[in-house]
Write a structure and sequence with these properties.
Blueprint (H helix, E strand, L loop, with lengths): L1 H7 L7 H25 L5 H13 L3 H14 L10 H20 L6 H24 L6 H13 L3 H18 L6 H21 L30
């Protein structure tokens, strides 16, 4: 009787301060996490490889390039007739500068084992950050929204859109000089289950009413950033 009653009792609304704090802390930690993974220099997620490749080609900091790519992805929402949430916009604005600030204070270690420690620490932090910002309920990251938007608009499976886009950006970034390695494989294998754990524990009930019209990702296997990476 007790379990049935608990299951049918509506969750209490979350105070806006809690929701906003979770969003902003999550976005800042996401940028720190990407910076740590870059400093590990053992491989990156597809979108960060893409941003790093363009950063090295064009000669601007990777954080600024991440912002520019995020804006470009967000513009692709227009033909998909999707509306970004405030979390989507802040995702584009906040994560990139935090990546550059992190890279100013975290150097790449010389020892391989130390680089892996830095990378895996960043990966764990990325999973936590994704659970925080995505669970706040202010809209998905631009890359997740692109994929779910394509699904809603054309009926393409989310996994097929995700795979096609990420293989393309990974290959492009690698050809431009982005770092692809065992860390890229580790990211692909681990990030889905890790985000599944953090999102289940950090998702807040009753997202703001104004966000109900925004596209919501049903697949948290990629943060994006960028994240994934590089801003999800």
């Amino acid at each position: 009787m007790t379990s049935t009653t608990a299951a049918t009792t509506p969750a209490r609304p979350v105070h806006p301060v809690r929701r906003w704090s979770q969003l902003l802390v999550g976005l800042v930690l996401y940028g720190v996490a990407i910076g740590l993974m870059i400093s590990g220099n053992v491989g990156l997620d597809p979108w960060t490889v893409f941003a790093q490749g363009w950063s090295r080609t064009v000669g601007i900091p990777i954080g600024i390039m991440t912002v520019l790519i995020g804006i470009g992805v967000l513009l692709l929402w227009i033909p998909l007739k999707q509306r970004p949430g405030i979390g989507t916009v802040l995702n584009v604005i906040v994560i990139g500068p935090v990546i550059d600030l992190t890279l100013l204070v975290v150097d790449t270690p010389d020892a391989l084992i130390a680089r892996w420690v830095v990378f895996l620490g960043g990966l764990a932090l990325l999973a936590l950050a994704t659970g925080l910002y995505f669970g706040a309920g202010f809209g998905p990251g631009p890359r997740d929204g692109l994929m779910t938007g394509a699904h809603a608009r054309f009926g393409w499976p989310v996994w097929a859109v995700r795979t096609g886009v990420e293989v393309t950006v990974l290959a492009t970034g690698w050809m431009l000089g982005g770092t692809v390695g065992l860390g890229t494989v580790a990211f692909a294998l681990l990030i889905g289950p890790m985000v599944g754990v953090t999102l289940a524990r950090l998702r807040l009930p009753e997202a703001p009413r104004r966000q109900r019209g925004s596209v919501r990702s049903t697949d948290a296997s990629h943060p994006v950033p960028g994240g994934t990476g590089g801003g999800a």
